[in-house]
Inverse folding.
């Protein structure tokens, strides 16, 4: 029954994606994130709490992963070849996404900052290869096929990482830049037209652009992040105080 409901919800969300309206996708993400924030009221996302599991978290993992899947399919150009072969958008797999986007968007280097105390990096695409899927994706797949059997895999850590991955994916959705500005997600230190140009280039050039939601801060451009978050100097990623305030450091 739950698996059937997931399929219905997935079809609804895929129809949303066909409209190619980033605002709808952002609203979808915010809806899921709000549920995670509600869970955070009772279980802080730190230490051993990453292993806490709950049926409540299963839907968060499945839906956040669905955003990743839907956005990555939307990014696909039908003229592209995957491993030298033509492929339909509907036939793409998580391994294909790795080949198509991991290097193109530096996904392994993208580390959303979870706004908890103390702040912490999340690296949802770390160690992702064409032969090894991210842990949260493997959990999502098992939950979609048999939620009751695999319920204990629905952990707080997997839910946070799936949301972090969804946030990264949304940032690369075509035409999402203006929508993120309108929703006050973007903090930037440049002309809006320059920001649009940077987004089309995969956020690989320029500096001073970060995404801010209620749960995360995501630095999109600038120098690489230091290995330890305690070494992160917010002023190197723009002049706005927003990132400084998010990290609660001056």
């Amino acid at each position: 029954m739950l698996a059937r409901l997931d399929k219905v919800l997935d079809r609804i969300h895929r129809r949303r994606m066909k409209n190619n309206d980033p605002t709808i996708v952002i609203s979808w993400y915010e809806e899921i994130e709000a549920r995670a924030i509600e869970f955070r009221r009772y279980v802080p996302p730190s230490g051993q709490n990453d292993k806490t599991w709950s049926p409540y978290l299963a839907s968060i993992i499945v839906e956040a992963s669905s955003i990743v899947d839907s956005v990555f399919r939307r990014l696909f150009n039908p003229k592209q070849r995957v491993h030298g072969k033509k492929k339909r958008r509907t036939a793409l797999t998580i391994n294909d996404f790795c080949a198509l986007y991991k290097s193109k968007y530096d996904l392994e280097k993208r580390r959303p900052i979870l706004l908890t105390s103390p702040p912490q990096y999340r690296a949802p695409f770390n160690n992702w290869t064409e032969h090894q899927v991210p842990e949260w994706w493997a959990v999502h797949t098992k939950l979609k096929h048999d939620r009751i059997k695999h319920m204990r895999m629905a952990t707080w850590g997997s839910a946070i990482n799936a949301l972090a991955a969804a946030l990264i994916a949304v940032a690369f959705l075509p035409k999402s830049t203006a929508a993120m500005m309108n929703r006050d997600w973007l903090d930037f230190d440049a002309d809006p037209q320059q920001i649009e140009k940077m987004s089309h280039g995969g956020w690989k050039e320029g500096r001073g652009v970060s995404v801010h939601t209620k749960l995360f801060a995501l630095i999109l451009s600038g120098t690489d992040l230091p290995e330890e978050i305690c070494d992160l100097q917010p002023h190197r990623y723009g002049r706005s105080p927003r990132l400084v305030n998010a990290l609660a450091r001056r």
Summary: The CA atoms of residues 53 and 155 lie 4 Å apart. Residues 55-75 form the longest helix (21 residues).
